[in-house]
Amino acid sequence: MSKVVKVTKGKGGFGGPLYLERKGKCNKIVSMTGRNIDPIAEYIGKLLGAEIVNGFNTSVPDDEVICIVVNCGGSLRCGLYPQKGIPTININAIGPSGPLAKYIKENIYVSGVTKENIELIEKEETNRVENRRSSADNFMQEKNTEKNFVKLIEKLASAMSKVISMLYGSGKEAVQTVIHMVIPFMAFISVIVTLILHSGVGTYVANALSPLTSSLWGLIVIAFICGIPFLSPLLGPGAAIQQVLSVVIGAEIAIGNVPVALALPALFAIDVQVGADFVPVGLSMQEAQPQTIEYGTPAFLLSRQITGPLAVLLGYFMSIGLF
């Protein structure tokens, strides 16, 4: 009897349960959590006896992937793999969010997962679940067939309704984006600014960073540190580091502790690591060959370490005379 692993959502999580098993050449657990393989991926691979692959270094064909383990904070990776039909396990307790939120469904995605949410089960239980899902799929196929038949009869009405529904859907998605992404981010920024202005944290941070943030050479050092190849993928996920630093530096510029002329080079300095964790994902989206991903990822990281300080210099010279 083949081994089957059941993965359920953790505390505050979403989705699931997922039933994972090896089937033919579908025998790999992919970890997309940075340079190191996540313990959750290792645990699932151990239970299934499957090969564990670090997706940051090596690309794996979609038809060979049992599931993908991510640590996404609510950006593109949450919905990228569900869109491709690959079972996705997010170790963060994140529900449907990001630009691909509509693909994050309970039957393909589960979040907030810990080792306590992973267990070996009997094959019969998964068969019952698959039968229920198959019945639901057949019902949906019949329903879609009826809709297609109606569309063939009413071609003109269908064309008009398609345009109207597209406009309505665009407006709906725009409102959802504002509610679920823009407004929470505005609230986050407001809280950070309030804490900085009224707790005195901004003053301490400004004093600690003043040797670096108050000079061009200091910003170059920050860019160099943020661009270190083994460090930049760890600083990139969720854009947390650059969000906090940008708010801190912006508030200090407004107060007058940091010169306004350093605003543009400071922006380049704290954003060197942006996208460093997304390189292998982006290459796989473009259907790059495994060897291209293997060599392209470190090449990109090394190039960012070189171009980061150069961008700070360019920003400094471009800001001359602006303020």
UniProtKB/TrEMBL annotation:
PANTHER family: PTHR39427, PTS SYSTEM GLUCITOL_SORBITOL-SPECIFIC EIIB COMPONENT
InterPro entries named among the record's database cross-references: PTS_EIIBC_GUT_C, PTS_EIIBC_GUT_N, PTS_sorb_EIIBC
UniProt lineage: Bacteria, Bacillati, Bacillota, Clostridia, Thermosediminibacterales
MF-aspect GO terms: protein-N(PI)-phosphohistidine-sugar phosphotransferase activity
Enzyme class: transferase
Residues with PTM Phosphocysteine: C72
Entry's Gene Ontology BP terms: phosphoenolpyruvate-dependent sugar phosphotransferase system
Positions of the PTS EIIB type-5 domain: 1-183
Top-level taxon of the source organism: Bacteria
Protein name: Glucitol/sorbitol-specific enzyme IIB component of PTS
Cited Pfam families: EIIBC-GUT_C, EIIBC-GUT_N
Ranges that cross the membrane: 174-196, 216-235, 247-270, 306-322
Keyword set, alphabetical order: Membrane, Transferase, Transmembrane, Transmembrane helix
Enzyme Commission (EC) number: 2.7.1.69
UniProt GO cellular component terms: plasma membrane
Gene transcribed to yield this protein: srlE
